[in-house]
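pinned: reference chain
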Amino acid sequence: MRLIIYTGKGGTGKTVNSCSTAIKLADLNYKTLVISADPAHTLKDAFMVPVVGNKPIKILDNLYALQVDPVLELAENYGSVLSYVASIFSKRGLDETLSYEIAMLPGMTQLFSLLKIEEFMRHESFDCIVMDMPASGEALRYLYFPKLVGNIGEKFSGFTGVFSGFVKMFQPFSSFAPIPTDVIQIEMNLLKRLEILSKILTDTKITSLRLLINPDSFSIENAKRALMSTNLYGMNVDAVIINKIFPRQVPDSYFTKWTEYQSTKIEEAKTSFYPLYIIEERFYEKELKGIEMLRENAETIFANKDPSRVFYSDKVFEFVKDGPTLILKIKAPFTNKDNFDVNRYGDYLVIKILDTTGNNIVNVIPLPIATITMKLYEVKIREGIIEVTFRE
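pinned: its C-alpha cells
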C-alpha cells in the first residue's frame, strides 16, 4: 500500500493536486481513496459532486473520496477522555464550554484525521491513499507519544492516565479520584493506534509527503519549516510541487514583473529543496475543478510517471544529537572547503556555495528549537556533506 500526503501553506493547491493525483492513480488501476480533513468540504467542490461524507463514496472506477469530520472522529474515539478532563475543570468553577476548549489538546482534530488513515491501512481496503492535509503540522507531534511513553506509560496510566493525568494538578490531593477504567482503556488503545500510525508514516516505502508551494516568499518559507519538521519526525518528503506559475509569454505587460519575480523564486526553491524531485505546475486560465480538468492537470504534473512511485527516499538534511552537541548534516556535492560559507542568524542557518559559474547559491535552513541555547561551534565538510556542529 502507498500513502501520499500533500501539505503546504493555505491556498497553494493541496486539494486540487490531491484530487488530480488520485484520478491518475485510479486511471492506472490502483484502488484509490482521497481523504480531506478541510472543514470547508472542498472535495465535493473539486470533483463537482453533490456530497462527499464521512464514509468513502465512489467518484470513478477505482476512485473513492472521504471527507473526514474531525469532531465526529474525536467524539467517537476520545469522547470519554475529553468529557472526563472537562468535568474536572468544570468542577473547579470554569464554564462548561470553556472547560471543553481547555481539555482539547492542540492538533487533536488533525490527529484523528490521521488515525482514519491507520484504520484503512490496517484493513488494507485500498492500494493507495492520498491525503489533503491541513496546513498546520501540530498533529505530527503526537506520533512521538508512543515512543515517549512506551511500556512505562502503560504502567503509569494505570493510576494517572497518559492524556488525562495532567488534570491531577488542578485538584487537591485529598479529593483526587481514580481515573475511570474506560478512560484508561481508551487512552491505551489510542497509544497503540498511534504507535502503528507512527510506523506507517515513517516507513519510506509506504509514506511520502509532497510539499505544495507557490513561487513566493511566504509559501517557500512555510515549506522549509515543514521540511525541517518532517526530517525531525523521520518522515520522507519525496517531491516539491511549485504551483501557479505564470507562463513567460503572457501578452499583458502587467504580468512582466510577476513572471520575473516568479522566476527568481523558482530558482530559490530548487536550491532550497535540493535534491528533492521538483515539479513545476502552470497557472491555469480558469479554476481547476471537475474530473476532466483534474485529469488534465494530473497529466501535466506526472505525464507518463506513476504517482505512486517514491521519487526520493533519502534525507535532505539530518540532525544528529550527541550529548551536549547537535550536528546538522547537509548534502552539498561538488563543494569543497574553499567555496562555501556558513552563518547563523537567529533560528536560521544561511549557507552560501560558489558554483562553477562564479555565482553564489544561497540556502536558508530553519533550525529546530533545541538550538536556541546552543552556539555554532564548528563547520566542516566531508565526502560532499557539510557538517555544522552546535554546542551548549
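why pinned: The mean pLDDT is 82. The chain has two domains: 2-71+106-148+198-302, 317-391.
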